[in-house]
Amino acid sequence: MHVLLVEDDELIRHSFATNLERYGYTVTDAADGLEGLELFRAADPDEPFDLLLLDVMLPALDGIGLCRRVRETSHVPILMMSARGDGLDVVSGLEAGADDYVVKPVETGVLLARIRSVLRRASWNPAPSTTYPAPPTDDVLTFGDLSVDTSGMTVTLADRPIALTPTELKLMLEFAARPEAIIDRHTLLRDVWDHGWDADTRVVDLAVQRLRKKIGHDRIETVRGFGYKFRR
């Protein structure tokens, strides 16, 4: 797995890179957001980055801006790092399209677990395509003009493909498998993010917001005090 690490603190960058390489990852690192963006865009299409690990506070182009620029063209898994776990950094990173975040300082074991979780969500997600073969009927769940192909891992709205990130796709599959059922946030954290009960439920709320923008706001109902319900 090839990781693009963008971190301006030299000591932290070296420590993260060394630890990731020790566990078998290939690491390319950058000290600011613009350098990171250039490295991402210059990557060999046949050997793209498998994961972006981005600090929020970066010179030249901050991690939020870098995340947004990457999301314009790619669904590569993105893990944000923030020193302010209770601040706007976390929310802004997730709204920009990040799949998850960690708060610095972070133990190596926790960082590796979060990376593996994000990569697992992406491992079965095919690259977005503008054309789809006709899938077997049994594998297609239809909700009005919204169709979810659980075999081909694709989603269409009014016969047009919807480009979803790996996290958004897995979230969509969870909702489609249990229409009209109320699913609490901690269940979604466990099943989609592989997180335990003490994880931050903001990742769920913001991922649902992003998914609503793509499939329609009225399809996912907020059940106050409980969680969410996908409407047929």
From TrEMBL:
Q: Does the keyword Transferase apply?
A: no
Matching entries from Pfam families are given as: Response_reg, Trans_reg_C
- Residue limits of the Response regulatory domain? 2-119
Among PROSITE patterns, the record links this protein to: OMPR_PHOB, RESPONSE_REGULATORY
- CDD domains, per this entry? REC_OmpR (cd17574), trans_reg_C (cd00383)
Q: Which UniProt keywords apply?
A: DNA-binding, Phosphoprotein, Transcription, Transcription regulation, Two-component regulatory system
Q: Which InterPro entries does its entry note?
A: CseB, OmpR/PhoB-type_DNA-bd, Sig_transdc_resp-reg_receiver, WalR-like
Ranges of the DNA-binding region feature:
138-232
According to the entry, every stretch annotated as the OmpR/PhoB-type domain falls at 138-232
Q: What is this protein called?
A: Response regulator transcription factor
Q: Which organism is it from?
A: Streptomyces niphimycinicus
